Every structure is written in C-alpha cells, then in structure tokens.
C-alpha cells in the first residue's frame, strides 16, 4: 500500500512510526485489547501489516510502545519547590490530574490483556519503565535534589519506601478511577510517608 499524506508525500521513519503508534493508541482506547490486532491498526494507520511487523514482533510489544508513546506526549513536570514534602505533594497532585483518566481507561480496556498474560497493572508499569521512557524515576530525581539540599539521606531507604507515595497514588487511582482530592494526597505524604522517613532515620531535621 502506498503510504501518502494528502500532500502526496510518502511517510517514513519517525513520522510513519508516530502515525502507527497514534493509530494503535486509538484502537486500544476505542475497542480494547481484544480487538487490538495488527490488521486493524494497519488499516487505521493507512499502512500494511508487514510495516508493523518490521518494527514490533507481536501486538503486546506494539501495545506497550503505544502506551509509552502516549505517556511521552503528556509528560508530568517534576516540581522543584526547594522542599521535599511540597515536591512530593505537588508531584502526586499532578500525577492524579494527568493519569486519572489513563488509569480508568487501562482498567476498562486491558482486562483481556491481564487475563491473557496473567499479569497485573503493576507488572505492566514495570514493563513500561524498561521502555524508551524508562530510566531514572521522578522520585529518584526529587530525592537527589533533597539530598543535595541536605534534607534527606537516601542511602538508608529501600526501593519500596521510595516508591510508596507513587504506589499509594496508583492504588487510589485504580480503585476510584478519578482524580484524588488534595486531602487524600496530603494524608499519603504527611501521615504515612514522612513519618516513615523519620522512623528510618532518613530525614535530616533542621535545628
């Protein structure tokens, strides 16, 4: 099939890949994982199945790439208030606002994927972290800044403790499928996470 835009220019490289990933995301959100096939995505993107197979070996790889592509199009800005507590509160507020609809969508449209693969939402998150948008986490960046300011000693913290605010936030989103109130976010930070940091001796309290 001739891959052309209205201008008559053949799509190639990144432009073609973006078009495929956008078509894949639209197919996933509109019809769910059960209808997520190379044939349907190729038709929506105006290309052919061999073009897709040259880039992704199966539909699960393409699905992960489409989700990662959509997340990259809507990045969450990392706060830098000069205060660890406020950075985490603002981060969770931004995550809640940006990802509430995403969580609802994933819960509704990926049930078939989770059943077919025997995986969970949290395992899907791990897979996405190894993709193009992976790398150092936002929490690591915030903690590194706090350590540079002398607020915290991250060397005494384990991964589970570091990820706890984000884990609790994801739980809230998956259970309620809507944006969390600020009061809930502040409770996660002030009543659960900050006391845990103190108990572990990670906080360097100012005199």
In short:
With 207 residues, this protein is an all-alpha fold. The chain contains 10 helices and no strands. α1 (13-31) crosses α4, α5 (84-109) packs across α10 and α9 runs antiparallel to α10.
Keyword list:
single chain; 207 residues; mainly alpha; 0% strand; disordered N terminus
Describe the structure.
- The chain is mostly helical and 207 residues long.
- The chain is built from ten helices and no strands.
- Helix 1 crosses helix 2.
- The N terminus is likely disordered.
Q: What structural class results from the helix and strand content?
A: mainly alpha
The major pleated sheet works out as: none
Provide the helix percentage.
55-70%
Which range does the strand content fall in? under 5%
Q: Count every beta strand, where a strand is a DSSP E run of 2 or more residues.
A: 0
Along the chain, the helix and strand elements come as: HHHHHHHHHH
What is the mean predicted local confidence, pLDDT?
A: 86
C-alpha Rg (nearest Å): 20 Å
Number of helices: 10
Low-confidence stretches: 1-8, 131-136
Q: What is the global morphology? A: elongated
- C-alpha end-to-end distance: 70 Å
């Amino acid at each position: 099939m001739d891959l052309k835009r209205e201008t008559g220019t053949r799509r190639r490289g990144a432009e073609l890949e973006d078009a495929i990933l956008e078509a894949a995301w639209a197919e996933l959100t509109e019809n769910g994982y059960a209808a997520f096939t190379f044939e349907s995505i190729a038709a929506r993107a105006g290309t052919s199945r061999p073009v897709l197979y040259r880039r992704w070996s199966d539909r699960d790889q393409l699905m992960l790439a489409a989700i990662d592509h959509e997340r990259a199009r809507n990045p969450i800005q990392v706060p830098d208030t000069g205060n660890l507590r406020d950075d985490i509160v603002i981060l969770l507020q931004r995550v809640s606002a940006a990802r509430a609809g995403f969580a609802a969508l994933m819960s509704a449209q990926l049930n078939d994927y989770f059943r077919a693969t025997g995986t969970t939402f949290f395992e899907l998150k791990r897979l996405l972290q190894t993709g193009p948008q992976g790398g150092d986490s936002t929490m690591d960046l915030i903690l590194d800044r706090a350590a540079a300011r002398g607020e915290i000693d991250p060397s005494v913290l384990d991964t589970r403790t570091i990820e706890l605010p984000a884990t609790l936030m994801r739980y809230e989103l998956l259970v309620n499928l809507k944006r969390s109130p600020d009061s809930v976010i502040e409770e996660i930070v002030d009543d659960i996470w900050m006391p845990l940091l103190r108990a572990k001796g990670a906080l360097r309290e100012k005199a």
